[in-house]
UniProtKB/TrEMBL annotation:
Annotated protein name in UniProt: Serine/threonine protein kinase
Top-level taxonomic group: Bacteria
GO molecular function, one term: protein serine/threonine kinase activity
Pfam families: Pkinase
This protein's UniProt keywords: Kinase, Serine/threonine-protein kinase, Transferase
Domain Protein kinase per the UniProt entry, residue ranges: 27-280
Matches recorded under InterPro entries: Kinase-like_dom_sf (IPR011009), Prot_kinase_dom (IPR000719), Tyr_kinase_cat_dom (IPR020635)
């Protein structure tokens, strides 16, 4: 089969559901929100209550893998109860297809805020976001799971509130072969996306802290403009950070701490310098 034909079939299979369709006689689709590697998300109206909910279905092209990951996400969400994470509502069958229903979180994700709205972050603002995200991560880890995808697209912003969303890649801590396929060796240099992704996908708690380190760097680079003709350098040289902050970020990237609680205690000490006015 020609590659172009195969790609066309996949696009056809994964074409979004139409607005107005009622799933399981209960959830009316209002808006297609987006598509990830394995799933599609929709804003829906619960016809029983009139409230907005989020419906997530597996991409049809992913077949058994997509369905298995969606079921796993469903099972994990049912075991969680944290105000900064999506609330599980339902597992709804429509014909022979299942969908995960969860509370709808209004707002924009951090990636949209940076790329579409031009949002930039100060060092303190970025540290405070990391601190906010440690709370849901601590809850997730204590429940025995790891997120494995802590990135700016999975951080929702609504007014002053910050949420950690999309547990589509989450798995049990220490789970063997969580993606159901043969593990691939990291590709590229140590700071390339292939190597970063490989490290972030490991089924241990430090993977999420590593993800937090890269998230902090993304926030800081949102306001960074290199000089014309300047050669690319490492983040430690390009970003102007306080020594203790630079050390903290390196600790996240080097797995210096094993738990979110340990990491949080270090961060609290750094933030005390700001609250006391010692931020020079």
């Amino acid at each position: 089969m020609p590659i172009w034909w195969k790609q066309w079939i996949i696009k056809w299979m994964d074409y979004p559901l139409r607005e107005g369709l009622v799933w399981a006689e209960t959830y009316r689709i209002e808006e297609f929100l987006g598509m990830g590697s394995y799933g599609q998300a929709y804003r829906c109206t619960d016809l029983r209550s009139g409230t907005s909910v989020l419906l997530k279905r597996a991409k049809p092209s992913k077949r058994d893998t997509g369905r298995r990951l969606l079921r796993r996400e469903n099972d994990i969400l049912q075991k969680l109860d944290h105000p900064q994470m999506p609330q599980w509502l339902d597992w709804a069958m429509h014909r022979r297809e299942a969908a995960l229903i969860m509370a709808f979180i209004d707002g924009v994700n951090a990636e949209q805020a940076i790329l579409l709205e031009g949002r930039t972050y100060t060092e303190l603002e970025a540290l405070l976001m990391v601190q906010d995200l440690l709370s849901p991560l601590k809850h997730l880890h204590e429940a025995g799971y790891v997120h494995r995808d802590v990135r700016i697209p999975n951080v929702m912003l609504h007014r002053e509130n910050i949420y950690l969303i999309d547990l589509g890649l989450a798995c049990r801590i220490g789970e063997k072969n969580p993606d159901g396929r043969e593990e691939e060796a990291p590709s590229g240099f140590a700071d390339s996306w292939g190597a970063v992704k490989h490290r972030m996908r490991q089924p241990d708690r430090t993977s999420d802290l590593y993800g937090l380190g890269h998230l902090f760097l993304f926030l800081m680079y949102a306001g960074y403009t290199p000089e014309e003709g300047e050669e690319e350098r490492g983040w430690e040289e390009e970003l102007t950070l306080k020594p203790e902050v630079r050390s903290f970020v390196k600790g996240l990237l080097e797995s210096r701490w094993q738990t979110a609680a340990e990491c949080g205690r270090i961060l609290e000490g750094i933030l005390e310098h700001y609250s006391s006015g010692n931020n020079e």
